[in-house]
Amino acid sequence: MIEASGLSKTFEDGEGKSLAVLSGASLRVARGELVAVMGRSGSGKSTLLHILGGLDTDYAGQVTVAGQRLDGASDEALARFRNTTVGFVFQSFHLVSGLTAAENVALPELFGAHAADAPRRALEALERVGLAAKAQRNPAQLSGGERQRVAIARALFLKPPVLLCDEPTGNLDGATGAEIIELFQRLNREGLTILAVTHEDRVSAAAQRVLRLDQGQLV
Amino acid sequence: MKASAVSALVRLNLRRDRRGALSSLFGIAVGVSSLVFFVALGLGISRVVREKVFPVDTRLVEVVPPQVALGGLLGGTLDQAAVDRLAALPGVDRAHRKMNVRVPAVCRYRGDFFGQQLNMGLEVIAVGVDPSLVQADVQLGKFEDPGAGQPIPAVAATRLIEIYNKTFAPARGLPQLSPAMLVGFSFPVELNRSFVTASAVGPSTPGTMQLVGVSERGLLAGVTIPLEAARRINKDHGADAATFTGVTLETSDPAQVPRVVAAVKEMGFRVDDAERRLSENAGAAVAITTLAMALLSALICLLAALNIAHALSASVRARSRELGVMRAVGASRADVARLVRAEALVLGASGGALGAALAVAAAFAVDLAVARFVPDFPFKPDAFFRVPLWLPLAGVALGALAAVVGAVGPSRRAARLEPARVLAG
Q1: Does the predicted model carry a pTM greater than 0.90?
Q2: Which of A127, B95, B293, B405 could form a disulfide with B38 if both were Cys (CB 3.0 to 4.6 A apart)?
Q3: Reported ipTM
Q4: Do the Cβ atoms of A109 and A118 come closer than 8 Å?
Q5: By CA distance, what is B330's nearest residue in A?
Q6: How far is A50 from chain B (nearest CA, A)?
């Protein structure tokens, strides 16, 4: 499902020195796998996730996700890819204020050519994460765990085959984090391919496979 | 990205930032309203100048003899032969001859004047013209010399009636007159008599003039009578009845006028374009004033565009994460730029519409106030403002354009946002 080889990326630090965060990293994730990528803070985990999700285009190497080649793809092609093929879950939820939970979930609908039954499908997605009852609430009226569930429902709204998670439990307490991890496991059992970057052991413990990012290489 | 999606997101953001939106909208509205207001005023005043104060027919050329004539060598005598040559010039459709009544005349009126007793003496200035010049405005009988002893048909100038109604009549407590009232009105004249010249050669001749119409082409300070009547009066009193005072050349097209003017000057005649120049100068003064006001208003629109640019830049900075999320769920760089531009377009068009509506309302209010509270004066128009349909529409378009121009920078910055960077952490 996900294949990446020879991924390299460098940043410039504040003094103008080049800093390599990925140095020829490669990985392969099979369909239906739940894989955790671990590493210390600043090791390049999020960078790897952004490259695999088509959010970062400034890198060297080859990436193919669900049969789509991302390196060298146009901005429009990458936008379509992000809209239909991958769902993102972020540590800080990144919900849009001013929109209800259901409207947040249906946000991807605005950027694709999909059917006009978005409200019903948004409710279905919220049901899938156990939050249908709070569909009309604003993000400010939801707890951290509930916001993350809304973010997961948004990521799943257009039924992508791949879910990419960036520290998904980083802002949640223990019990809520456990609920989210349980939710990921359930979604994975339903056939969703999940790649989560994390530094939390409880997330890696739930994964079927754990990769470590060290010195720009995945091991 | 669908138009409905753009609309939904624009509405969302404007709803969340009402204060910023209102500030941007207000700036555009001020600029557009002042522009529409002043342009409407300029158009209205121009119309008054063109149609009432100096109703110049742009197809006409007034030919007069030179101030110093050197016999027939350099032209100068405006006789029938000269008129024939002028009429034959390329571009000239017709030549209307004019001959002043070259003997003095007075009117001593004593009797009923539209319901009021009047006892007044006036010096009468009259010019005879070819009937074709004013025929269209004649409403009673034929405009031709009726022969000695018969009332001479006369045409009054529209502007003379206006000046009488707005200044003379109110000052003397005389009745207001309309063209319809005047047609058929007769008054006595004594030819070869004057209140102002020391003496006139020969005896005076009593007669009558009857107003048969009111015309823009009539002599401003006097009456216009048939050419043959003027010729007969001059002849009867021993004055020059062979040469003309002037000739009005009617061209087929205003574009022919410069060529005709050049040919007339080449023939040794002068062109009396004082009225045309006055009209053009007044029109130019109005146009320059309007342009200055319009430029000032355009400057306000420019400042409004800068305000929108500033507001949108701040908005893009504040929403960088949100825009990053949109990129993450499928928005392209072009989608994000379109979103910012659409927001500006809505603000600009709304501000433009509000400004245009305010300007039209203000123009209407000013016209109403002037009509009610400002006393009558000559050429006072029914409306000082003219608001053709294109003007408010142009105001809306200008508001939208100013806003979209203001959004160029912010939309580019929004499109350049790196989602990987703004969503990190």
Answers
A1: no
A2: B293
A3: 0.90
A4: yes
A5: A83
A6: 6
